[in-house]
What we know:
Layout: H1 6-22, E1 28-31, E2 38-42, E3 45-49, H2 51-62
Antiparallel strand pairs: 1-2, 2-3
Helix pairs in contact: 1-2
Amino acid sequence: MYSISKAALKEEVEKLAEKAFHQRLISGYGDGEFPNKYQIVYEGKPRHFSLEHARIFLEELMQW
């Protein structure tokens, strides 16, 4: 099974979030206030995701 390191996953999520931000799909992003969580501001609401779920959310959002 393919495994990605936490650092590589975080870097990938940050790149996706930056791309989504510049496409105006999200209005903010960054490390969450909770350990191992990533915050994405979508439709004016901050949402906290695990890195894995953040990647999936951003990938699906950019497919629209």
